[in-house]
Amino acid sequence: MNDSVRAVEGDRWVVVGLDNGGNANNATVLDSAGEFLVEGLLESPSRVKEGPVVAVEALAEAFDNVLTQTGVPRAGVRSVGLDTPGPASATGVISTKGSTNFVDQAWRGYDVRGALEEKLGLPVVYNNDGNAAALYAHHVHFGLLGATRSSVSAIVGTGLGGGVIESGRIVSGAAGMAGELGHVHIPMQGLLDGDQSIPSCNCGFFGDAESIASLTGIERNLLPYWLAKHPDHPLAKEPSVATAAKLVRGLGEAGDPLAVKIFEQQAAAIGRLFTIAANFTDPDAYFVGGGVVQASAAFGQWFLEQVEKNTSLRDEQRQVATFALVPDLDMAGARGAALAARQSVPRGTS
């Protein structure tokens, strides 16, 4: 048995969490006592580029593997939580327009939740990866008080994901598109330099949060502008903007002025997004996750402070609201998916 997993004790029932990504699936097990049996990553190839049939088979293999690793009998599993990148419906149907990770045409309009449920013969609860990470952050931060608290999370990656949690549960919305925080339009006055153009997003919007606060936003909008201002910067010598964009985080940690300016703009964008949330849901907590805060602890804390500084709260709100980083981000998706599955199991289940 892997050193990072623990066997289930006695006859406790469990749920399984499966986090589906562009390259790998990560799996975990949560028992009825609320204990995660997998401490670190338990990854296997996701094979999503080979189409949905192959990818669902890979998810089933990840499910079987995590049961083997934890010594859990299949009969002990009550539900399975699945998360994938969006956009997808509330019931796990991938968008008819496709997705960044799901490039094969067969994915368009594909019911990935239903397919996995049929494959496993078990109930499958679906959420997008941002919502799953948001639920895990909420659970860790509030513990037993989670069911009485609310939170909003922004997850900075290739795009800008997120999640809204009310009374300890994910707000998914009628079509499953709630919590798509990256595509909320934010005020640009004072965020952009005087001659900086309104940024565009891959979704077709102009001036939404993702057009600034994402790796795509750096590549598409921020870096080209700042390199035009500073043509002698070392990043200007990189073979492509895409290559240069991936180096910005390391330079930001090192204190490079251009990189720091980019991250200041990203933090300001998230702060403005949270300001909208403050006037819409008035949450108890605001969480920030993603690659930008997986850098050094000092840099992650600096970025969080910049976000908080740019979030406009009333005095009454500031006295009760907290700002925090999403913990265990590599595990947050699988664990959040498992928590959602556990919430679906009726009370009193044996």
UniProtKB/TrEMBL annotation:
Keywords: Kinase, Transferase. Belongs to the ROK (NagC/XylR) family. The lineage of its organism: Bacteria, Bacillati, Actinomycetota, Actinomycetes, Micromonosporales. It comes from the Bacteria. The keyword Kinase applies. GO terms for molecular function: kinase activity. The keyword Heme does not apply. InterPro entries: ATPase_NBD (IPR043129), ROK (IPR000600), ROK_cs (IPR049874). It comes from Asanoa ishikariensis. This is Sugar kinase of the NBD/HSP70 family, may contain an N-terminal HTH domain. Signal peptide: none annotated.
